[in-house]
Specification:
2 copies of one chain form a homodimer. Chain A is mainly α and about 110 residues long. In chain A, about 65% of the residues lie in helices and about 0% in strands. The longest helix of chain A is centred in the middle third of the chain and has 23 residues. The first copy, chain A, binds a DNA duplex (30 and 30 nucleotides) through α4 and α5.
Chain lengths: ~110, ~110
DNA sequence: TGACGATATGTCGGATGTGACATATACTCC
DNA sequence: GGAGTATATGTCACATCCGACATATCGTCA
């Protein structure tokens, strides 16, 4: 769906660039958003690999399907704090968190 | 002062161990606290190296002296979010954040 | 097409985090 | 000891985040 939405937007003449260039964010705001997106994508990866639904994951980390969706989407209402705590709850080590943070951001979401 | 306090405690027969072993935290809670402490110490390091007072730092990141003190102390009322945003505001890159996270925790604060 | 399971989006009450202020405690220097 | 500066601690009003629920949208299969 994300994919199809992107295509629709592109069809209408939008160009997809970095989030930071679209909104005009200060460098540190941009870095913050990047961090969030990296953690978010990794969270989704983890879930998909396990063949969990968002509902399943929510149960595991004692949250709700909607919040998981927002986490994976990097929604503004989700803090780095929650993302990191969630990854830790799934058994990630701080070393893994660090790896995620340094990793190159995935080209197009998910 | 932190140092002198530690000595006083040790003189009274206290043993200084990991936070996680004192309180009884679950693995992920422990990891969370560790992370916080690492970021907190690095923040203080940064400030001291620059010969800033907590007040100075507060001005730079638009916060208050008391909150900076709490950040550096890893106070429960301070989120990872705030710590990371603060470091980013001071110009740290995500790579540096990652380095801090993987780093071994300093033996005794500061 | 319709129905079904999964994901996304909007909203809300209660929980937690935040800057600010007051105040206590520590650490010089005189 | 007292004055001055820095740091720690307590509190509060306001802001932000969170889980939960409702509902919309998507994707697939018949």
């Amino acid at each position: 769906m994300r994919e199809s939405k992107r295509k629709r937007l592109e069809a209408k003449g939008w160009r997809i660039g970095s989030t930071a260039e679209f909104l005009n964010l200060s460098p540190e705001e941009a870095a913050y958003v990047e961090l969030k997106i990296k953690l978010a994508s990794r969270l989704r990866e983890w879930r998909v690999r396990r063949q969990f639904t968002q509902g399943d994951l929510a149960r595991v980390v004692k949250s709700s399907q909607s919040r998981v969706a927002k986490m994976e989407a990097g929604d503004p209402s989700v803090s780095l704090d929650l993302l990191i705590r969630t990854l830790l709850a799934l058994g990630a080590s701080s070393r893994e968190i660090a790896r995620i943070i340094t990793s190159r951001r995935p080209a197009t979401a998910a």
